[in-house]
């Protein structure tokens, strides 16, 4: 699927959702339960419908085959430890408990995409905001907005890895330190091109670890069609992104160690001044 087809999928998804009052009402019902849930409250229990279980089964089944060939080892090993149920939608509270036992991270229930500063405040506290509703059953392999499949299969599996969990926590702490809007936007951009859409090389093969790619059957099938650039913070600064469609440009680390060296070190030490200086550097 090409970036252009990603945009077409979004149009189809929007019209499908808008023309289905039952789905809209169901999603609003689940979102309202999340909305009533405070940060320290237990994650709500959702009685998922058979149709929602079927969407979960269908997507997990399709992704599993791709993960074996296209996902990074650190992600695959963490997913194996976490062992998210494939046969039906698990309770977010149960997955959260299991992740916490593996890496110290946990989920917080969210009604929708939360503002980046709020999202990062959670990460700094080792908490990831996750939705609990699922995408529309007519578009099981595509969603522009985060849903529970994206949040749990994409981010949850990664968060079961102590190495990825540390990167998420460092991103949150970096955003909490940042005061200028330019600094926060740059931290968000680094997050997008790494923990959402990042690639790394293993034994010469390009593999995905970013949550947006590993939770999307379409993106897993076609991420190698993008223009792939070496991971470099300065060159990443000069690329725009649109979260509503497939990325035309992606960045690859040459290993998990390099990802931690470049991005982990950046998030660990950055502030408004260092980011301003980085953005002012000439492009090589
Ligand atoms: Fe995400």
UniProtKB/TrEMBL annotation:
EC number: 1.14.16.1
Gene3D superfamilies, A to Z: Aromatic amino acid hydroxylase (1.10.800.10)
Pfam families in alphabetical order: Biopterin_H (PF00351)
GO MF annotations in UniProt: iron ion binding; phenylalanine 4-monooxygenase activity
Cofactor: Fe(2+)
Annotated family: Belongs to the biopterin-dependent aromatic amino acid hydroxylase family.
Protein name: Phenylalanine 4-monooxygenase
Naturally occurring in which organism (per UniProt): Streptomyces ferrugineus
């Amino acid at each position: 699927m090409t970036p252009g087809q990603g945009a077409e999928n979004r149009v189809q998804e929007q019209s499908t959702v808008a023309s289905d009052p039952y789905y809209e009402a169901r999603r609003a019902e689940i979102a309202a339960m999340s909305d009533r849930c405070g940060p320290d409250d237990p994650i709500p229990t959702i009685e998922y419908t058979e149709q929602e279980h079927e969407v979960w089964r269908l997507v997990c089944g399709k992704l599993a085959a791709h993960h074996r060939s296209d996902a990074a080892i650190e992600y695959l090993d963490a997913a194996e430890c976490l062992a998210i149920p494939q046969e039906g939608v698990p309770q977010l509270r149960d997955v959260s408990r299991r992740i916490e036992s593996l890496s110290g991270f946990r989920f917080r229930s969210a009604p929708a995409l939360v503002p980046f500063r709020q999202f990062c405040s959670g990460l700094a506290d080792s908490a990831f905001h996750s939705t609990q509703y699922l995408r529309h059953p007519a578009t099981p392999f595509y969603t522009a907005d985060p849903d529970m499949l994206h949040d749990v299969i994409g981010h949850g599996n990664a968060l079961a890895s102590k190495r990825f969990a540390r990167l998420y926590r460092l991103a949150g702490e970096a955003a909490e330190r940042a005061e200028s809007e330019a600094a926060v936007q740059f931290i968000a951009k680094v997050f997008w091109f790494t923990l959402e859409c990042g690639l790394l090389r293993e034994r010469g093969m390009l593999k995905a670890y970013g949550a947006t790619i590993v939770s999307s059957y379409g993106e897993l099938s076609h991420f190698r069609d993008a223009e792939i650039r070496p991971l470099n913070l300065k060159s990443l600064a000069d690329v725009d992104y649109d979260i509503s469609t497939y990325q035309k440009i992606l960045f690859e680390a040459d290993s998990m160690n390099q990802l931690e060296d470049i991005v982990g070190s950046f998030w660990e030490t950055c502030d408004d001044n260092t980011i301003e200086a980085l953005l002012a550097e000439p492009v090589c």
